[in-house]
Design brief:
This protein is of the alpha/beta class. It contains 34 helices and 15 strands. The chain has 5 domains: 397 residues, Amino acid/polyamine transporter I (Up-down Bundle); 112 residues, no CATH class; 48 residues; 150 residues, 3-Layer(aba) Sandwich (Rossmann fold); 146 residues, Rossmann fold, CATH 3.40.50. Helix 21 crosses helix 22. The protein starts with 22 loop residues before the first helix and ends in an 11-residue tail after the last strand. Belongs to the SLC12A transporter family. K/Cl co-transporter subfamily.
Length: 1059
């Protein structure tokens, strides 16, 4: 309360008993009161944003929970860190009380956080391995392909090749399940399932691309299940309800496709309405659908066992060796004798023009006999030998019994109008792989509902792997049992026309084919509903992550969080699959998307394992990176085996999404494996760069850009960043840096944020490096010395000319500038100084006709010629021409010198206009640290380029002057011999200023209209007493020019004529 405790000052009021306590105890009492007040205000009065964070050590972390962290006693020593480092007891308490919301139903986090809505009491997850993982995976894996296409695949490919297909696909999913188990047990997997696992392991780009592919796969799976439902309905349950009826035999296939489209669309609308009304109804029916699958499987095995005792009676009729559709006739014979009278049968009428015995019949019908055999001969019949190998063929090929004799005929043109069994599509091995693969998908069902499991990290691996092992056993045994029990012509009869339009797999079932028909119908219905339930939630999870901007609308839904817009989008895409109207055509499409998803699950596990990231600690230990790579290779192989063009389309879609997210998506940091891979690759590259010095051919300007920040932490010269972008064109290293005076704890974050904003605005790609120092000079020195890492250190410094150095109250600006020049020279780094930087073009400007003028007075290693070339690569400077001016020395032939320079530029592959300027000896004072440029050009004709660097470093001991004639040269030498060697500082300054003035006159005369002028930058004086005069020289040298770039080389060659 503003009072100061004293120990009994004269005249003070009588102390209370509390104040009579010893001094240390009173301070402790006062301190405890202050802590109580502060704790109340900090932890109970400050509102939180209620936003869970992945970076938190807590699973359901929100800001308003922080009040519970500071519940310890005697922890005052750590109270200042309690915000960022909660007590261990609080952490353990939060983890022990962890509950996750049920995924896929109406208990959504948004619904709970919404004001004015009664919160739903969430029960702790109670599902175990069997109910939560094993059965859902079984239900998703066993489905439409098993009931509608597996018998046809076995008949077409044969037992051996079908077994190979099953083994390949099941091995692929088993390896993927092992990788998935490792990822799923490496922490909690929230809503999103496989999408969450991939995105958090491989980054937002891969996660978004593969997540959308998985979404498309799930959506097309819904189409396939709906088409399977309609096929069962129209083929086997109510075949007379078709809307379209073919008038001609050849139009039957098209009529069937149209019926599939009409009924499929209606079924999709009905299912979407059920999902929209409430997912809870779908979940309640899930047990019914699962029971249908289990009963159907049991009926198949029971039927196989019964064939050993008594095979079912399903006779098929063969004409010669051709299989016939027997739903239009009862007796498999041409004629029958009743009371010694011969009558023709219905079969006769199908092949002859009339029922009379003297009618003209089909030639093949006349030449071949009719045979009736059993379609299901049984397990012990030996038919397995006939079904060992495949029988592929084109569309329209007749289904024939291999070992049956027949008399062939020449004219088969009318066969299409006869009741034969035909191939409806061309068949080959790779096609069957694509059609079969969807039957092994569904392995993600357990990981998708990890929030419902009592112990997800134990249940997901065990349940998923057991489900795959069980279904693999079912598929493998079914392949062998189908081939051992069913006649080959029946197996190749896709729609069961030879067994009176019964479902082929139903003919094997016991006690009735209707068990399989009804079971498969409800199984397909349930699978379709689950696809329409899961796909919108997957799209909603992707949309809410914000990585794909145009999908954000699909993140919204009803008040309880149901994804309404995502459901509409899913129904629209699902309708595309239904319009295809064929299970055989849709299956390879969704195979591609699922295979791509599984491929990246394996890749994620392999990358994390090889990188050995500290956070990679799966509880599931039975994995290895070789298994993941094998699974990844198998997925890629199956993609191209199934359909190479579908594989390319799927990869193109994923690639486009990846690049879109990379270019437009929100920046996310999820600690993904690709970032770890990048770090390892960067470390390896840096070590390699450090081992070998940079060759001249590989030299490029690696810039350290020195920025100034104003009082509001804004960039003072943003055009410096624009010029950096134009010079670099996105290539090479750029370090944008600034120095602040003060303490790092108070200023570092603000400055870095300001620089990053400016870099983003100017589209400058590079790194930020902010140094906070007790004084600015030391800060700049530290930057020049320590910026960069290993081989990725800067070799050039770019800064703005201190324009107001004359008007400055103190001498710091120009002294800091000169010290920076000296330090870059000592560090053998190039220096670029831009005058009037605010007049330089921005990245949106396009300079028209103009020139970039280079005044090449002394040799700088070729940097002056390289910089205009780099600038002209950018669209801002692309239309500018390059001009090179150089200065002739005393006894040089100007004409020959121009020719030599032109030849030199020709060898350098540079296009530029060359001009040689002759000047009076007193006008130019050469830099003693480098040789005059004219000498270098003259020697090009006589010395090899290999000696160029040696020549450049050779410094003449005497001062070189320029003159017009040889007589003047001799007179000048004689005058020099008679003068003392000592030159007074005043005389030196006068000569330098005179040189600057005269050289400026020539430059302004030649280059005043140029878009940019590049000049050699003279070195600073060795004596610091002449620093201010040095600034005056430079100011005079650049006077009257709009855009000037002073260039000082780093002491090495940066350009070469050799390839």
């Amino acid at each position: 309360n503003g009072r100061h405790f004293t120990l009994g000052t004269p005249g003070s009021p009588k102390p209370s008993p509390r104040e009579l306590l010893p001094e240390k105890l009173r301070y402790l009492y006062f301190y405890s009161k202050v802590c109580f007040i502060l704790r109340y205000h900090v932890f109970y009065c400050l509102p939180g944003d209620n936003t869970p964070r992945e970076s938190s050590p807590f699973i359901n972390n929100t800001d308003h929970d922080r009040g519970n962290y500071y519940d310890g006693k005697n922890m005052a020593l750590f109270e200042e860190e309690i915000e960022s480092n909660p007590m261990v007891s609080s952490l353990l308490n939060k983890l022990a009380n962890y509950t996750n919301l049920t995924q896929g139903v109406t208990e959504h986090e948004e619904y709970e956080n919404e004001e004015g809505v009664t919160k739903i009491t969430v029960k702790s997850p109670q599902m175990g391995t069997f109910i939560g993982v094993y059965l859902p995976c079984m239900q998703n894996i066993l489905g439409v392909i098993l009931f509608l296409r597996l018998t046809w695949i076995v008949g077409t490919a044969g037992i051996m090749e079908s077994f190979a297909i099953v083994v390949m696909c099941c091995t692929c999913t088993m390896l993927t399940a092992i990788s998935m188990s490792a990822i799923a047990t490496n922490g909690v997997v929230p809503a999103g399932g496989s999408y969450y696992m991939i995105s958090r392991s491989l980054g937002p780009e891969f996660g978004g691309a593969v997540g959308l592919c998985f979404y498309l796969g799930t959506t097309f799976a819904g189409s396939m299940y709906i088409l399977g439902t309609i096929e069962i309905l129209l083929m086997y349950i109510v075949p007379n309800t078709a809307v379209f009826v073919a008038e001609k035999k050849e139009d039957e296939a098209e009529a069937m496709l149209n019926n599939m489209r009409v009924y499929g669309t209606c079924c999709l609308a009905l299912m979407a309405l059920v999902v929209f009304v409430g997912v809870k109804y779908v979940n309640k029916l899930a047990l019914v659908f699962l029971a249908c699958v289990v009963l159907s499987i049991m009926a198949i095995y029971a039927g196989v066992i019964k064939t050993v005792i008594e095979p079912p009676n399903f006779p098929i009729c063969l004409l010669g060796n051709r299989s016939l559709q027997n739903h239009n006739f009862e007796k498999c014979m041409k004629t029958e004798v009743i009371k010694n009278v011969t009558y023709t049968t219905k079969l006769w009428k199908l092949f002859c023009g009339s029922p009379h015995l003297n009618a003209t019949c089909d030639e093949y019908f006349t030449l071949n006999n009719v045979t009736e055999i059993q379609g299901i001969p049984g397990l012990l019949s030996g038919v397995i030998k006939d079904n060992m190998w495949g029988d592929y063929g084109p569309s329209g090929m007749l289904v024939e019994k291999k070992n049956q004799s027949s008399v062939p005929v020449q004219d088969n043109s009318r066969d299409i109008y006869k009741p034969y069994i035909f191939n409806d599509i061309s068949t080959f091995f790779t096609l069957l792989v694509g059609i079969y693969f969807p039957s092994v998908t569904g392995i993600m069902a357990g990981s998708n509902r990890s929030g419902d499991l009592r112990d997800a990290q134990r249940s997901i691996p065990i349940g998923t792997i057991l489900a795959i092992a069980t279904t693999s056993f079912i598929y493998m045994t079914c392949v062998v049992l189908f081939g051992a029990c069913i006649e080959g012509v029946v197996l190749r009869d896709k729609f069961g026309g030879s067994v009176k339009k019964n479902l082929v797999i139903g003919t094997l079932a016991w006690p009735s084919p209707w068990v399989i028909v009804i079971g498969s119908f409800f199984s397909c219905c349930g699978a379709g509903l689950q696809s329409l339930t899961g796909a919108p939630r997957l799209l909603q999870a992707i949309a809410r992550d914000g990585i794909v901007p145009f999908l954000q609308v699909f993140g919204h839904g009803k008040a309880n969080g149901e994804p309404t817009w995502a459901l509409l989008m899913t129904a629209g895409i699902c309708e595309i699959g239904i319009l295809i109207a064929s299970v055989d055509a849709v299956a390879p499409i969704l195979s591609m998307f699922f295979l791509m998803c599984y491929l990246f699950v394996n890749l994620a596990c392999a990358v994390q394992t090889l990188l050995r990231t500290p956070n990679w600690r799966p509880r599931f230990k039975f994995y290895h990176w070789t298994l993941s790579f094998l699974g990844m290779s198998l997925c890629l192989s199956l993609m191209f085996i199934s359909s190479w063009y579908y594989a390319l389309v799927a990869m193109s879609i994923a690639g486009c999404i990846y690049k879109y997210i990379e270019y437009r998506g929100a920046e996310k940091e999820w600690g993904d494996g690709i970032r770890g891979l990048s770090l390892n690759a960067a470390r390896y590259a840096l070590i390699r760069l450090e081992e070998v010095p940079t060759h001249t051919k590989n030299w490029r300007p690696q810039l350290l850009v020195l920025l100034k920040l104003d009082s509001d932490m804004g960039v003072k010269h943003p055009r410096l960043l624009s010029f950096t972008t134009q010079l670099k064109a996105g290539k090479g290293l750029t370090i944008v840096s600034s120095v602040l005076e003060g303490t790092y704890m108070t200023l570092g974050a603000e400055a870095k944020s300001a620089e990053q904003s400016a870099m983003h605005a100017e589209r400058t790609k590079g790194f930020c490096h902010v140094v906070v120092s007790s004084n600015l000079r030391d800060g700049f020195s530290h930057l020049i010395q320590s910026a960069g890492l290993g081989g990725m250190k800067h070799n050039a410094v770019l800064m703005a000319w201190p324009g107001g150095w004359k008007q400055a109250e103190d001498s710091y600006p120009w002294k800091n500038f000169i010290e920076t020049v000296r330090e870059t020279t000592s560090a053998h780094q190039a220096l670029l100084v831009a005058k009037n930087i605010d007049k330089f073009p921005c990245n949106q400007d396009r300079l028209g006709e103009g020139t970039i003028d280079v005044w090449w007075i002394v040799h700088d290693g070729g940097l002056l010629m390289l910089l205009p070339f780099l600038l002209r690569q950018h669209k801002v400077w692309r239309k500018c021409k390059m001009r090179i001016f150089t200065v002739a020395q005393m006894d040089d032939n100007s004409i020959q010198m121009k020719k030599d320079l032109q030849m030199f530029l020709y060898h350098l592959r540079l296009n530029a206009v060359v001009e040689v300027v002759e000047m009076h000896p007193a006008w130019v004072c050469s830099d003693t640290s480098v040789i005059p440029q004219a000498q270098l050009i003259t020697k090009l004709g006589t010395k090899s380029h290999a000696n160029l660097s040696d020549t450049a470093t050779a410094t003449p001991d005497h001062q070189v002057h320029m003159t017009w004639t040889k007589d003047k040269l001799i007179a000048e030498r004689n005058r020099k011999r008679g003068e003392p060697n000592m030159v007074s500082p005043l005389e030196s300054n006068v000569r330098r200023m005179h040189t600057a003035v005269k050289l400026n006159e020539v430059v302004v005369n030649k280059s005043q209209g140029a878009q940019l002028v590049l000049l050699n930058m003279p070195g600073p004086p060795k004596n610091k007493g002449g620093d201010e005069n040095y600034m005056e020289f430079l100011e005079v040298l650049m006077d009257g020019l709009d855009r000037v770039l002073l260039v000082r080389g780093g002491g090495r060659e940066v350009i070469t004529i050799y390839s």
